[in-house]
């Protein structure tokens, strides 16, 4: 882990490429979004189809504040972060209290409906959001330079990883895993399952909103696509491909998917075969699920366990032969 982090820190100085900086900044941002989704899917067993609602709230909040305030100051960014924190907490708490006491698919469908409702609001409230066309805005100086933004995004991802790792390894995180494995048994042991689900939904919503803020900063443009189901599906697939229930898996999955998108889109520009690059992208998903059903981290874990078992068997046989000899 530390070696990979050192490589990412040194990467901008080894390869002077603006495209590379932009690409990896997107990887870091979506890694945070995928980790927030993994809290729900991987650690609690809750499926959400509208997790992009928090992502979109963060993006639009930042964009609106930047357009209406002095872009040269950081006050707008901090104020947008504060408002995003409050809105994400209120919305995630309300949705959680209304639906998480029911079966998971009710929660999934309601989150999808709320995300769709927010998209419609953004489309119709043109005086504030400019509708589907969206709008551009300026950002403070620290975010304009791609090199500094690269390190800001990297730092944001690292801090998020360690915060969520501490969260998942806490007693509360252990209860979430118990709920995922057997919700009825966890409730019979005296745990108030609804409250734990609401807590994790609030935490996931907050980090998703913060990732939306950085996403808007990276593009300096926002439109209604930030509320789209495609954003949520990307997080879902990043989590599945990397490894459900592992934060590092969400980071690996986001890196692979963003790099695959970039590579296939680049090939589409040079050869007509790749013009329908989404088809090849779908094939990548299918192959990943077929050969890595537990994700890349899960597959590596299984390989490590098989190797340990094999070594144990070899040592056991060798010990038995030695004892028979003497």
From TrEMBL:
Its main location: membrane. The chain crosses the membrane at residues 43-65, 77-98, 104-122, 147-167, 198-223, 235-257, 277-300. It is a multi-pass membrane protein. One of its GO terms (molecular function) is branched-chain amino acid transmembrane transporter activity. It is found in: Cell membrane. GO terms for cellular component: plasma membrane. Keywords: Cell membrane, Membrane, Transmembrane, Transmembrane helix. InterPro entries: ABC_transp_permease, LivM-like. This is Branched-chain amino acid ABC transporter permease. The lineage of its organism: Bacteria, Bacillati, Bacillota, Bacilli, Bacillales.
